[in-house]
Amino acid sequence: MSVNFIGMVTTHKNSEIHPSAGPAIDTDYLLRFAKAHEDAGFDRVLVPYHSNGPDAILTIAQVAAATSRIKLMLAHRPGFVSPTLAARQLATLDHFSGGRLGVHIISGGSDIEQRRDGDYLDHDQRYARTDEYLEILRRVWTAEKPFDHEGAHYRFEQAFSEVKPVQKPHIPIFFGGASDAAIPVAGRHADIYALWGESLDQVRDLTGRVRAEAARHGRKVEFSISFRPILADTEDQAWERAERILEETRRLRAGNARLHPAYTGPQQSEGARRLLAAADKGTRVDKRLWTAIAKETGARYNSTALVGTPEQVAEALLDYYDLGVTTFLIRGFDPLEDATDYGRELIPRTRELVAQRLAKKAA
């Protein structure tokens, strides 16, 4: 299979080494960031969700209007909007974006963050709600006549949407969650299952579990994984850059700088525990997986890096491709600048290596 690349845009500049500054929305930065991904050859771009940040649906609508080719991925948390309304909103957005939308379902990894928006369900209850939510969402997208529903979390009568997604049978569903409560939901609903940047052994284990769960429902699932590539002209320079990033991360966290909530809030997810388990094996795992930022920050987000030259990192990505991962979500510590840099060598070189691999198999 071919390989896909996803980037991520935000409404202002921020990362572990760039504290939030200025207003929450810098429209010019957002649109330049989105165009940079399109120009760099990314296939899709993610708009994240935070409980105290700009609205993700309105933000992704801005990104859609400012771009023409790149596909979109909206981070979306069940529980705050009725699934019948969300189905119509997302189908409408799919039309206005020219059939470019994907939705990334996140059930929530922090009780504190969920409660900011009034959600008091516990971890496993959130996944049970997500299961019902996705069942309804997909049915509204595909139903040819009104239907009733009465479940543990939602009840309605004669739900129907005149607007259906442009994409058939429906908008692609990305799904994140590695806990025992999450895996069955992924098996029933995910089109693309998203992992954080784990070790090769961890990925082999988790993708196997998800495949087995999907097979129980007669389904197949594709896989995406997230990394923070750190590139330089030589391997030594890349590792030196990684150490500078770690030093600056520590300095800012110790100095009580105005860090974005994504880098400071508590994290209770199984994904975080898995990243910390990788970090327990050392700061350098497998060929080039660097876990130091994950360990420093408590693994509150996709924070592991692949470090090296573009050629070396592309070869490391191929190790994951050989495990069945066909989508890579990559974003940098210097967000806009790194997105542009990835388009110069890393993305085309990885595509070239995959093409060579496929040609060899076909021969």
UniProtKB/TrEMBL annotation:
Among InterPro entries, the record links this protein to: Luciferase-like_dom, Luciferase-like_sf, SsuD_RutA_monooxygenase
Q: A GO term (biological process) for this protein?
A: alkanesulfonate catabolic process
Q: Residue span of the signal peptide, if any?
A: none
Q: Which domain of life is it from?
A: Bacteria
Q: Which residues form the Luciferase-like domain?
A: 7-326
Single GO molecular-function term? alkanesulfonate monooxygenase activity
Q: List keywords of the entry alphabetically.
A: Flavoprotein, FMN, Monooxygenase, Oxidoreductase
Q: Which CDD domains match?
A: Alkanesulfonate_monoxygenase
Supply the Pfam families for this chain. Bac_luciferase
Q: Matching PANTHER family, A to Z?
A: ALKANESULFONATE MONOOXYGENASE, BLL6451 PROTEIN
Its protein name is: Alkanesulfonate monooxygenase
Species for this entry: Herbaspirillum robiniae
